[in-house]
Amino acid sequence: MRIEPKMPGRQPRTRIQKKNTETILEAALEVFSQHGFRGATLDQIAKAAGLSKPNLLYYFPSKVAIHRALIDGLMKTWLDPLREMKADGDPVEEVIAYVLRKLEMAREFPRESRLFANEIVQGAPNIMDKIEGELKNLVEEKAAVIEGWIEQGKIAPCNPYHLIFSIWSTTQHYADFDAQIRGILHPEGDAHFEQARHHLETLFRRMLTP
Amino acid sequence: MRIEPKMPGRQPRTRIQKKNTETILEAALEVFSQHGFRGATLDQIAKAAGLSKPNLLYYFPSKVAIHRALIDGLMKTWLDPLREMKADGDPVEEVIAYVLRKLEMAREFPRESRLFANEIVQGAPNIMDKIEGELKNLVEEKAAVIEGWIEQGKIAPCNPYHLIFSIWSTTQHYADFDAQIRGILHPEGDAHFEQARHHLETLFRRMLTP
DNA sequence: GTCTATAAGGTGATAGAC
DNA sequence: GTCTATCACCTTATAGAC
């Protein structure tokens, strides 16, 4: 996943600055996604990045600035799978492909998923502007596309918004609730993702086929 | 939701002790569910309970003891909706009824849902024993029931474990990701739960009907 | 750019009066 | 049982040497 840091006031100029900035954001992703904003400490991030704590704060002015840069850099990529759902494709296949892309994201980028999950569960204090902005806009746009498919009889009637919520929840569940799933299934590595793939394709295909 | 505190070593004896213990657990639920274990402070819990911090620690020996008592008291109730799914009912209606009970829990007890969500997202450090114990046992039992229904041709073939995961994720989503849903839908109060009810009933009915 | 030292404030827990 | 006062520790952030 591409990380595009936005540092207010301090842009990375030299090669070493850029490299350290990326190292910090990678470490911050690891720590924030595991412990949440409040639970994460600069000590943990510094250690994970292989830097001293003051050096961390040389690159970012504060803990919250690291968190903000991380989320800003990830938000665009996080929404890409939904953006790729196009109105001119085969409706059922477009939605199924979106489901599978989203599941693949949960498998490949579970830390990113948990970063957002931590934030939203606690009331989304730092990203509500983005939820009510670009996320809301994108969802409304795609809900209109789905609504059009329903009116054309291409997919079975349903509430487009809640369909999207169901796709988010079922797929992200495999990242966000990974600990619970592993406690129940005791899978070897990612073996259960193949089952999940088949299950979710079946679930939404039965839901959508007219 | 019934809270049955288990305080290691200190059982509430007098009426006032019992009342204070319950007040503390109610306050702790409010604070822990909103900020997670690490993010919550004893100051916040004490203030919410209307007690001083040392008085809080007169009733519970430590912060972690409060958290543990809270989870222990809620775990049984949290699993009841699944326990009520009986092998001798009409299969499709049994599963649908379970979905709707679970959604009702998300609407009535969102704090309880977020308490568990916070815990699991961060790797379930304090409840993994319960996940691998009573939760795993219950899920295996009910998965066997669903498997039986499939073999009898009463419901359409699917993976019982992942079906249960889909039910959990779609219903709890309305509690755990409430902030995101409200940011997108801007519903008045709980108005969107009626839509969710209809949507999820449709989703799982189409999935399960042979 | 990176470090050691440290300030400044928050946080879990205890002591002891009442 | 409840309180004030306080300790010991942790955490964010800054100062200043190199």
Automatic annotation (TrEMBL), chains A, B:
The keyword DNA-binding applies. The keyword Isomerase does not apply. Residues 41-60 bind DNA. Keywords: DNA-binding. It comes from the Bacteria. InterPro entries: Homeodomain-like_sf (IPR009057), HTH-type_TetR-like_transc_reg (IPR050109), HTH_TetR (IPR001647), Tet_transcr_reg_TetR-rel_C_sf (IPR036271), Tscrpt_reg_YcdC_C (IPR013573). One of its GO terms (molecular function) is transcription cis-regulatory region binding. Residues 18-78 form the HTH tetR-type domain. Pfam families: TetR_C_3 (PF08362), TetR_N (PF00440). Coiled coil: none annotated. GO terms for biological process: negative regulation of DNA-templated transcription. PROSITE patterns: HTH_TETR_2. PANTHER family: HTH-TYPE TRANSCRIPTIONAL REGULATOR RUTR. This is TetR family transcriptional regulator. It comes from Celeribacter baekdonensis B30. The lineage of its organism: Bacteria, Pseudomonadati, Pseudomonadota, Alphaproteobacteria, Rhodobacterales.
